[in-house]
Write a structure and sequence with these properties.
The chain has helices at about 160-165, 240-250, 285, 300-310, 320-340, 345-365, 375-385, 385-390; strands at about 10-15, 35-40, 50-55, 60, 65, 70-75, 85-90, 95-100, 110-115, 150-155, 175-180, 185-195, 210-215, 225, 230-235, 260-265, 290-295. The chain has about 400 residues and is of the alpha+beta class. The strands form 5 sheets. It has a 4-stranded mixed beta sheet with strand order 5-6-2-9, with no helix packed on it. A 4-stranded antiparallel beta sheet has the order 4-3-7-8, with no helix packed on it. A 4-stranded antiparallel beta sheet has the order 10-11-12-13.
Amino acid sequence: MLPCRSSVFVCQAIVLLLLLFSSPCQGRATDDQALVQYKVIATPKGNMDLAVVIDDVHMYRMTRVSNDSVLYAVSAPAAAHGYRYTQLNHATQKNETTEAFVRAPRQAGLHEFYGRQWVYRRVKTLPTLKSLPQAYDRRDVDHLHPQNEIPTLHLQASARDIDNLHGYYLQDISIEANATYITAKHTMPFQDVKISLSGRSTRYFSKLSYNLNLPKGGKLDGLIINDRAIGLFLLIERYDDHWLRNEFAAGDKHYANGILYKGDGNIKTKKYKADLSYHGNATAPYEQTSYSVEVEPKQDDKDDNDANNKHKKHKKDKKGNKDKKNKDNQAAAGDKADDKKKKDPAAELGDLIALTKFIDERLQATNNKTALNQTNTLALWNKHFDIDGYFIK
């Protein structure tokens, strides 16, 4: 759902229904010919096979790398001039569709995409700031988000679940799926991925948006779903406790984050909008706003404070790790017990009320043209906002 900016990644999304086939190659390699792996992501129709045509002479049939994969492969001689992929009619073995371009021999071995000539393409990026504010300590995620390529995520779920998800698009339905994440050089499988529709008004669009929740420890960048191509998607990281520690603590799991509020759009069942307006010190009016607590604050303790201040250099010995793990387990058990209790609105909304009150006081002072001490004003704002981070020079 990375710094006060979202990292956005372009990923291929397709809905696929997979059929296994196997067949012998039509070409033959001699012993002295060097073999290479030809690999392509494709979604042929049920009566079609995949093959690679080398130097426009020899053709080699391809098979799926596994029963439920969209990745096809075959070992065949290296091309002297070039190669292309083609789809064969399974019954007649005649070419039905062949790529209109010739691929360069140097591309062989990468995970290519049928019908797209390039695997890597340099994409212009926004200039990187020479220095970020000290509060930011972003985790290095280059290995998670490959640049200059379009990763593919193949999602597999039952047809009935997919139909329910899309048919009842105004309901909050979650389904389970298995996933395979494919980059130019790697494939990574994920089990028990949770899929749901995201957004509110966007659910009326012909092209829907999705939430993907991976099991603990799972990470991916891209998107595919069961039997038809649905185009390119942008992948945006979710704002949660993982985002907070990756953004401000280099991924340190001991980072003691504060409370994170989510302000939805104008929800008809709520009396007030989430527009940072001040409604007085009482909590009742804020309970009628479209704010919600997205992430609970992590309980501060000595270990957490040390982690926040020293996480770059922080390395614990085995005993320390074991002790901390025990504390975490105890804290988790306590959290589960607390969840059963009724939440205190004052505790949840206190920080929000204080913030909106402060903004309201500043606006009134400005409207009344009240003279403000500039140094004192900056100090007051810094209590509520990371000014250096919000207004990057």
